[in-house]
């Protein structure tokens, strides 16, 4: 009986301490109405009422400031930062470094230029994949320039080395392209490379579509990393829409009609007519038909009025 009363009044929102005090004063066999009256007499309130009674802490905001509380967000605004609207970037480090070195030298400075370009745009998730054997000292058959940049990017958790080892003096290298495509596919990001990955396209049909739609090619112009403004062609999305998760559709621009006021197409004209904004865009033939129907209709109404008693 004691436990049932405790559960009943706890559901109403009263604290267990107040309930125990009342039951000790009135006894365990007291009626629920008597217990409730005693709780009210003691001044005990349910927790829900106490939270409502407490005044909300309002913060004074300077006039004209744009700061808002977390609960007062605009409709459609995400809780995350604007950087979350940008796609993750996965860079083919070997491809970028060899392109910057004119396919003769593994230029690590090219990787740094690409990473800086995406950082300036606000991308937070940037990963660069490079084979592990590039950490070895440079040789004549595989020269490397600015190798210290790889160490700095690794400390920043940007650069990732793909596994490689030596077996009986021969180097065994894992296929780094598969790492690049797999991570970009899982993160729903963008691959930065001039490689088409044709072997991986044939290996997985899902990867085929992803590589065709999410491959960002580039060029180096005087130590300047330059991706194209139209990554998927002239009729495709812009570079900003290509790199964002929420693309912004361009506003439709109407081309003015070359015939102007002399146009006879009316509503069928596909061009813009500023003089017809507040007019029904009918063709000339339709306007003539509408004008001829009006007097005919008026004449029939007059005849009906004359014939009616």
Summarize the entry for a quick read.
The protein has 309 residues and is an alpha/beta fold.
Summarize the helices and strands and which ones pair or pack.
Layout: H1 2-12, H2 16-26, H3 32-42, H4 47-53, E1 89-92, H5 93-100, E2 106-107, H6 108-121, E3 126-131, E4 144-145, H7 148-155, E5 159-162, E6 164-167, E7 170-173, H8 176-187, E8 190-192, H9 198-203, H10 205-214, E9 215-216, E10 219-220, E11 225-226, H11 239-242, H12 284-307
Parallel strand pairs: 1-3, 1-8, 2-4, 3-5, 8-9
Antiparallel strand pairs: 6-7, 10-11
Helix pairs in contact: 1-2, 2-3, 5-6
Helix content: 40-55%
CATH class of the largest domain: Alpha Beta
**Global Rg:** 37 Å
Instruction: Give the strand order of the largest sheet, numbering strands 1, 2, ... along the chain.
Output: 5-3-1-8-9
CATH topology description of the largest domain: Rossmann fold
What is the annotated CATH architecture of the largest domain? 3-Layer(aba) Sandwich
In terms of DSSP E residues, the strand content is: 5-15%
> What structural class should be given to the helix and strand makeup?
alpha/beta
Instruction: Give the low-pLDDT segments.
Output: 48-56, 61-81
Q: Major beta sheet, specifics? A: 5 strands, parallel
**Envelope shape:** flat
Distance between the termini: 92 Å
Order of helices and strands: HHHHEHEHEEHEEEHEHHEEEHH
Number of strands: 11
Mean pLDDT: 77
Structurally, the number of domains stands at 3
By DSSP (H or I, 4+ residues per run), the number of helices equals 12
